[in-house]
Automatic annotation (TrEMBL):
This is Fluoride-specific ion channel FluC. Fluoride-specific ion channel. Important for reducing fluoride concentration in the cell, thus reducing its toxicity. The gene is crcB. It catalyses: fluoride(in) = fluoride(out). The chain crosses the membrane at residues 32-56, 68-89, 101-125. Na(+) binds at residues 76, 79. It is a multi-pass membrane protein. Belongs to the fluoride channel Fluc/FEX (TC 1.A.43) family. Its main location: membrane. The keyword Hydrolase does not apply. It is found in: Cell membrane. The lineage of its organism: Bacteria, Bacillati, Actinomycetota, Actinomycetes, Micrococcales.
Amino acid sequence: MTMLLMALAGGVGAATRFVTDAAVARRSRFRVPLGTLVINVTGSFLLGLLTGLFALSSADSSGATLKAVIGTGFCGGFTTFSTASVESVRLWLAEGRATGFGYAATTLVLGVVAAATGIGVGQLLG
């Protein structure tokens, strides 16, 4: 049952990524792919929040299922390391090394900060 729920959550995550990326792209005036950046930073925060909420809790089966469904399923379907990598290389080739490297570095730094913030908030709420 957990696998089925994870697969469904992954599909919802992927659909949410598609809608979010399209919405951000419509509003963006920048040449860098802000949609993927927003998605990965938001997903990092959500996964950090989930980790922080469950870090101090007991490992009962319902908590483990929820972590797997949201963390692996939804967040796995929502975030996209491969697209961020391809977009970094595309920017490197089209806009120059500084732009490509800057996009990759920004994605990495903001993702780590968002995850750490999510863990902190999760621990405060949990």
